[in-house]
Amino acid sequence: MTKPITSVAAMTFVEEGLIDLTDPISQWLPEFATPRVYVKGSALAPVTEPATEPIRLWHLLTHTSGLTYGFHHTHPVDAIYRAAGHEWGTPKGLDLAACCRQWAEFPLVFQPGSEWNYSVSSDVLGRLVEVLAGKPLDEVLAERVFGPLGMTDTGFWTPDTDRLAALYLPEPGTKRAVRNDVFGKLGTARPEFLGGGGGLVSTAGDYHRFTQMLLRGGELDGARVLGPRTVELMTSNHLPGHVDLEAYGRPLFAEMPFNGFGFGLGFSVLEDPVKAKTLSSAGEYAWGGAASTAFWVDPDEDLTAAFYTQLLPSSTHPIRQQLRQLVYQALVG
What we know:
By secondary structure, this protein is an alpha+beta fold. It contains twelve helices and eleven strands.
């Protein structure tokens, strides 16, 4: 669940006045100065047109940039990503800066700001954070988030490999969980690619401190990471007209349901519990990880919940919604 952490780090720079939500990212990442948008054609021969406006910081935070993921398998641009080695990982030998230069050369799936699409936006956000700070992403996250919150067991790798949980995949046919040590060992050494969209390893205790900081308006145990108004802005629905993802998103994989959920600056936001068919409170904000991890924050109930499994991908089992039902049916008064 790296994306919300990267988003929080990015917003510390907004608070300091070093960047504005409406600033074009090309001011710091010039490779994105002239994006082009897919119009028609195949992955091998796409027809494109110039973007009508630049990719801005808020586009990255809200996943409305027009970028995509290779693992979606729903659009010709997804295939362009896969052909270049961007699917459930990145090409060997490329760091975050090099990957961003490649993504900038690919067409956007749509005009920036016109739709929602789960994408490498958070990874590009991580690169933007690196440039703003003049430091690698792991150092920025340690200084601005992990250090202040006492998250001593969180980073892009751990030398304490005996404590690292195994990762599992569903076996084709039987769907039984089988170990995948190729993916599971990625957290045992410093990776070439430090992505803002994934790759952190952590503990339940550490991530609980992160969610508690959010619940308390950006502060925990005397350490303030963000101002309360910033947290409020991040956890509001930024989709135009307060529509949900069903109306504004693309019908593909994401880390939350679409019906009744909007999207803020790095978090899903529950707009309509009735439409979402959930016991949760309106205003709940949340996110999940690719290996079926999940968290949510419910300010109305003064509640945070987090769940950690190691099953990839997260769409394998509906356990996230079942957890919500168990939690909320236990609340009385």
